[in-house]
Amino acid sequence: MEPSQFLPGALSVSRLIQAFNRLPGIGPKSAQRLTYHLIRMDEDEAYALSEAIRDVKEKIDFCKICQNITEINPCGICSDSSRDPSKLCVVEEPLDVLALERTGAYSGLYHVLHGAISPMNNIGPNDLRLNDLLSRISTLPPQELIIATNPNLEGEATAMYINGLLEGTNMAVTRLAKGLPMGGDLEYADPSTLYQAFEGRKAL
Amino acid sequence: MPHTYSTEAIILRHSSVGETDRLITLYTKDYGKLHAFARGIRKPNSKLTGYLEPLNQVNILIAQGRNLPLITQADMIKGFYIPSTTFEAIVSGCYIADCLDAFTLEGVENKLLYDLGCSELKQIQTVKNGQTQLRYFELQLLMISGYQPELEVCLYCRKLPQRHSLYFSFEAGGILCRDCKNQFDCFIISATSTKALRYLLKTETQNAQKMLMPDEVHKELAYVLTNYVQFVVDRRLQSLTFARHLEKWESTL
After folding, report:
1. How many angstroms separate the first and last alpha carbons of chain B?
2. Cβ of A190 and B79 within 8 Å?
3. Its pTM surpasses 0.80
4. The dihedral of CA B17, A118, B122, A188: what is its sign?
5. Tens of pLDDT along B17-35?
């Protein structure tokens, strides 16, 4: 549908509705609501938003070492000398780095794959930043490679594949532990999670 | 269909919707293929987390939603992922799920196909030779779906072909003799491969593993069956393209 067909005489409004509609999870009604919210918004706030969008597109790049999104290259984590270079944690997405950083439990470096191997969607190792990981490991091998991909079929396939590629190296390849979530209910846990929680039990 | 119903199902695939939901494609024992919503499943504390992963066989309770059915409860019958599962088994399992998805229509139940899917997903986790198991699965899938290839007589003249002049045609759906090879698009197929196909078509799943075949027969069977499957569904299967791309990528390492 042409933008002018939405709202005759207000082409910019129709264009914005269409732009919102293209975002994931935003349907036509939500797109309209967001647009009218922006129209009613303070001018400064609206310009700040448009500037933030422009900045993201202009300034954001991929870190040449860890492939995380960054404004400076190498990124803050890779250029931080206090981080432990003997540990390298492999994650699927940049947001996973944020989640792990929030725990404060890890002080090593990261590598972001930007996805996971998915045979059913034809996403293979060539679609991920796996070549960058392999060349990074070959030049500066860490003592431990921690695979922190998601605990689902794609994440497990990715972890297994990376482990297979690194077979025969001296590096310790580890996987994040799996088990029961805080606030969870034992009776609803699936057998695979329960099995792994049992296997990974610890002395109190 | 009742407002709520329970059934056994194989999880074929899923896609993320919104913040925490997923749209699940299932192949159920009693209602055929279904698309259903799993609300909040991506939250770590969801009751459904872990159960609705692809390739799992589960017991589910479905409520008829306004648009799409909702999965309200799930219980595991046989989880695909166990600590000993290999990468090759996951790739093969995804191919089985991809084939089931491609060969089935929504709401059309077929208990034979469901049982085949369950038994082959179980087999593929344990067998040493996953490729032979996949060939067995493809032939059984074709047979149950009504596309069993003709492997005994020439499809055109209905005569027994000579052992060393066999041709296979996707279009005709089986073998042709030398005299009839020009009637359809076809390619030459070895007598050993034809014999292996006949055996796999008639044998039980546990016997497929006992077959010893030279590498060239393995390759020929894989070529014939994967391409025939794709010819029947009239599209490229993503999991097959994945396997080919993976092979190519690994050769560059």
Report:
1. 53
2. yes
3. yes
4. negative
5. 888 899 999 999 999 999 9
Same fold for the pair B4-78 and B87-251: no
The nearest alpha carbon in chain B to A125 belongs to B246
Q: Compute the nearest-CA separation of B79 from chain A (Å).
A: 7
Q: What class, spelled out in words, does domain B87-251 have in CATH?
A: mainly alpha
Nearest CA to A77 among A37, A109, A34, A29?
A109
Nearest Cα to Cα of residue A162 among A193, A200, A128: A128
- Backbone Cα Rg of chain B: 20
Predicted confidence (pLDDT) per residue in B62-112, tens digit: 998 788 899 999 999 999 987 788 999 999 999 999 999 999 999 999 999
**Test mutation, B84, B90, B98, chain A, max A CBs within 10 A:** B90
Q: Which residue of B has its CA nearest to A24?
A: B18
Q: What burial letters (b/e) apply to A44-76, b meaning 16+ CB within 10 Å?
A: eeeeeeeeeeeeeeeeeebbebbbbbbeeeebe
Of A123, A164, A190, the CB nearest to B51: A190
pLDDT per residue over A29-68, tens digit each? 999 999 999 999 999 999 999 999 999 999 999 999 999 9
Peptide bond into A191 cis (omega under 30): no
> Quick one: which of A201, A191, A88 has its CA closest to A134?
A88
* Residue B251: both structure tokens together: 């050769």
CB-defined contacts A:B, below 8 A: 83
In this structure, CATH architecture of domain B4-78: Beta Barrel (2.40)
A183 CB neighbours in chain B (<8 A) are 45
Q: Minimal Cα distance from A194: which residue of B?
A: B50
Q: Which residue has the tokens 């040493």?
A: B128
pLDDT greater than 50 at residue B209: yes
**With 70 as the cut, is the pLDDT of residue A5 above it?**
no
What does DSSP say about strands A84-91 and A108-112: parallel, antiparallel, or unpaired?
Answer: parallel
- b or e along B158-191 (b: 16 or more beta carbons within 10 Å of the residue's beta carbon)? eeebeeeebbbbbebbbbbbeebbebbebeebee
**How many angstroms separate the Cα of A14 from the Cα of each of A17, A80, B93?**
5, 46, 46
Determine, for residues B245 and A126 on separate chains, whether the beta-carbon distance falls below 8 Å. yes
* Segments making up each domain of chain B, as ranges: 4-78, 87-251
Å between B87 CA and nearest CA of chain A:
6
